[in-house]
Design brief:
Elements: H1 6-16, H2 27-34, H3 37-40, E1 48-54, H4 66-69, E2 86-90, E3 93-102, E4 105-113, E5 125-130, E6 138-141, E7 157-160, E8 163-166, E9 170-172, E10 175-180, E11 188-194, H5 205-210, H6 212-223, E12 233-240, E13 244-249, E14 255-264, H7 272-275, E15 276-282, E16 285-291, H8 292-296, E17 305-306, E18 310-312, E19 317-320, E20 324-326, E21 330-336, E22 342-351, E23 361-373, E24 378-386, E25 389-400, E26 411-415, E27 423-424, H9 428-431, E28 444-446, E29 449-454, E30 472-479, E31 485-487, E32 490-497, E33 504-515, E34 520-521, H10 527-530, E35 538-539, E36 545-546, E37 556-558, E38 563-566, E39 572-577, E40 589-594, E41 601-607, E42 614-622, E43 627-633, E44 636-637, E45 642-643, E46 650-660, E47 666-676, E48 685-694
Antiparallel strand pairs: 1-11, 2-3, 3-10, 4-8, 4-9, 4-11, 5-6, 5-10, 7-8, 12-22, 13-21, 14-19, 14-20, 14-22, 15-16, 15-21, 17-18, 18-19, 23-33, 24-32, 24-34, 25-30, 25-31, 25-33, 26-27, 26-32, 28-29, 29-30, 35-36, 37-48, 38-41, 39-40, 40-48, 41-47, 42-46, 42-48, 43-44, 43-45, 43-47
Pfam family, one: DUF2961
Keywords: Signal
InterPro entries: DUF2961 (IPR021345)
């Protein structure tokens, strides 16, 4: 295992011209801090709170107003949207103010998406005014300034999946204002808010140029995070029996874990990364209980990537480089929750540590839930912490049972008892530093964030098409350097569950933070839930998700794809999306049948699976102007008429038509409009899909 040599960090501090404890906050000091893993294990010397100005919807004011709290218009697409601070006029030109912070601080992360998924450019200019200056200190193309192609180089700034993301620090002593020359789209500016007396050297272009050689060295460290060091390591190489645990006792006395790696004997069974759990105890208290896939960022299965704090290698070695100090004792254990044995290879490297009143313990926990309903919209709590600490990252693995995009939900982070979150995001994919999630299903990696897997793609299987399919597992991971989140008394991190489909998803998240000995979380070990691995639904022959437990439909055939045999000439049939209504429809909509009258007959041919009898199940829609209908299949009447009236649109649920034997490899479904409910205002109707099942399965 490899870690950064202390002498290399000492060299970086020497280049800055200051000792680390005495220098003011500056470009150089922040770059040093970005690659100083020891500093993350200590409460900040210059205390700050992380804040964010974003384009979150301003209608979101309180959870009691659910419509406003879960409003999804987190952008500015027309003049009616006011998801920014204000509009100013400078020298006869309008400028949209996106961020305006009074007091000492530093921008430590920016995120802005492409204006469309296939348009990675813009003419909008962005301007950064510092310390009350009337002329911008920084100005450039709104995307180009922060995508690694302009002033700020890679890896500090880069083009993520359909977005521009920068982690380059922009410190200021008195004030920072960010504007654009045209109406902005989505945006996030994440910044440190320092105490009023904190000494800060304001960013200047000359200072930026003076730091270029320093930036080059730090950039090389970020992209080559593993540096060899000659220190002995402890190891465990064994076969871990089913439902068993093996441990490594760390050297006694004050020390710190410097690196840790785990390699499993086989990843053929993807759930092994969820059923093998890593536990850690420091000074007699368990601070870590987390499945290995969620701790190292791989999620469910082996999905290689490289980051500053973690690497998942192609050979299955999962490693992390967080510094984990302790005062007297430490123990690292692997637990096999499965019944089957698994070979394990664990290596731990420890080093020196000087404990002081800023030192903290490393913590990691996990929460899983399956199923998770997407309606009504809700906030899903990652973790709530009480005490003093610093939050440093998380890995989210989602099982999506449908093709449609699952990640519209915003992060909402409350620090130290806030009534309103000081960090209110614009979408789950934005939190993990990419955008346009419905199409951005490719693998990507960066020192501080990655998408190791999405749909069926990872680093070993890259995406080559423009398909929009987010069905299956997606793993998103983010670790924090300058954008760590210190808290003095509490931190609550919630993520909205906001999918375009009414379905049941699976959520699992690993969270990482440092805390004092008495800092506590609301997370406890969940071995039963760790074994409750959400199943990926199997696609049917017309690519519809099928899983009864996941809210899908087995062998579902959409009416718009069925062969239409006959209908009255005046009758119109139109596919219609129903995403704004509560309830489950296959593919999120139905076929609306209009201009129907009593006595109208419509016939379809339904292909059979084989020659044996099958159960046919109809899914349709009820609404305020819908008719009463009857059915026959192959000339055999269905027992009862079906009243499709309801006060507002809603799915009927499953309607069992009966068991039928195909004729010549097909069924003929005949529907007749026979009347209407007295409360209905018309004879229209909506039909969703027809489902074939083995007779023994029934409904």
């Amino acid at each position: 295992m490899k870690i950064i040599l202390p002498s290399l960090l000492a060299m970086l501090f020497a280049v800055s011209g200051h000792a680390p404890a005495s220098e003011p906050v500056s470009i150089r000091s922040l770059l040093n801090e970005m690659v100083d893993r020891d500093s993350v294990a200590k409460f900040p010397e210059y205390e700050f709170r992380l804040k964010q100005h974003s384009s979150y919807n301003r209608a979101s004011k309180t959870p009691e107003d659910e419509e406003g709290w879960f409003n999804n218009i987190d952008r500015n697409t027309n003049d009616k949207d006011k998801n920014f601070i204000r509009i100013e006029e400078n020298n006869g030109q309008k400028e949209w103010v996106l961020m305006d912070h009074e007091g000492p601080g530093a921008i430590v992360r920016t995120w802005m998406p492409f204006l469309s998924p296939h348009r990675p450019n813009t003419n909008i200019r962005i301007r950064v005014y510092l310390d009350g200056a009337t002329e911008p200190t920084l100005e450039g193309n709104m995307l180009g300034l922060f995508d690694g192609t302009g002033l700020i180089p890679y890896p500090f700034a880069h083009k993520s999946l359909r977005s521009s993301v920068s982690f380059f620090p922009i410190p200021y002593a008195k004030r920072c204002k960010v504007t654009t020359t045209e109406r902005p789209f989505f945006f996030q500016f994440t910044f440190r808010e320092y105490a009023a007396e904190t000494p800060v050297e304001t960013f200047t272009i000359s200072g930026f140029k003076d730091a270029e050689s320093h930036m080059d060295r730090v950039g090389k460290m970020l992209t080559n995070p593993e540096v060899t060091v000659a220190q002995p390591s402890q190891s465990l190489n064994a076969t871990l029996a089913g439902n068993s645990e093996r441990s490594i006792d760390l050297p006694s006395g004050t020390a710190s874990v410097r690196s840790l790696s785990v390699r499993l004997g086989s990843y053929e069974k993807p759930s092994v990364t969820r059923s093998v759990v890593l536990k850690m105890e420091f000074d007699g208290r368990e601070t870590v209980w987390c499945p290995v896939g969620d701790l190292f960022g791989s999620g469910i299965g082996l999905h290689p990537f490289q980051g500053w704090y973690r690497t998942v290698a192609d050979d299955g070695t999962m490693s992390c480089r967080w510094v984990m100090p302790y005062q007297q004792s430490g123990k690292i254990s692997l637990v096999n929750l499965d019944n089957e044995p698994i070979d394990v290879d664990v290596k731990v490297q420890t080093g020196e540590w000087t404990w002081d009143d800023r030192s903290m313990y490393f913590n990691a926990a996990w929460r899983g839930q399956y199923p998770v309903a997407t309606r009504p919209y809700s906030d899903w709590n990652y973790v709530t912490l009480k005490g003093r600490g610093v939050y440093v990252g998380d890995t989210l693995t989602v099982m999506n049972p449908v093709e449609k995009w699952w990640g519209e939900g915003d992060e909402k982070i409350f620090v130290d008892g806030e009534d309103f979150p000081s960090i209110f995001g614009t979408g789950t994919e934005d939190y993990y530093a990419y955008s346009w999630g419905g199409i951005s299903t490719d693998f990507y990696e960066h020192p501080f964030h990655a998408q190791p897997r999405s749909h069926v793609y990872n680093r070993l299987k890259r995406k080559t098409s423009s398909e929009r399919n987010t069905l299956g597992y997606s793993t998103e991971t983010r670790t924090r350097a300058l954008d760590t989140m210190p808290f003095g008394s509490s931190l609550q991190l919630d993520m909205e569950i906001w999918s375009w489909s009414d379905c049941e998803m699976g959520y699992g998240v690993g969270m990482y933070w440092y805390g004092d000995a008495d800092t506590r979380s609301n997370r406890n070990p969940e071995p039963a839930e760790a074994l409750n691995v959400p199943p990926i639904p199997v696609a049917t022959d017309n690519d519809t998700a099928s899983s009864g437990a996941s809210g899908g439909f087995r062998e579902s055939l959409e009416f718009e794809k069925l062969e239409l045999v006959s209908k009255p000439k005046r009758v119109k049939m139109t596919p219609q999306s129903l995403g704004s209504y509560k309830g489950k429809w296959s593919r999120g909509g139905h076929v609306l049948v209009k201009e129907t009258e009593p006595g109208d007959v419509i016939e379809w041919t339904i292909p059979a699976k084989g020659s044996v009898a099958e159960t046919l199940v109809l899914n349709a829609t009820k609404s305020y102007d819908f008719a009463i209908v009857s059915f026959t299949v192959n000339g055999i009447p269905v027992d009862s008429k079906i009243d499709l009236y309801a006060e507002k649109p809603a799915p009927t649920g499953e309607i069992k038509l009966g068991d039928f034997t195909p004729i010549d490899g097909a069924y003929v479904l005949r529907m007749t409009v026979v009347g209407k409910n007295d409360a209905s205002s018309g004879f229209r109707l909506g039909i969703d899909c027809i489902t074939r099942r083995p007779v023994a399965e029934g409904t």
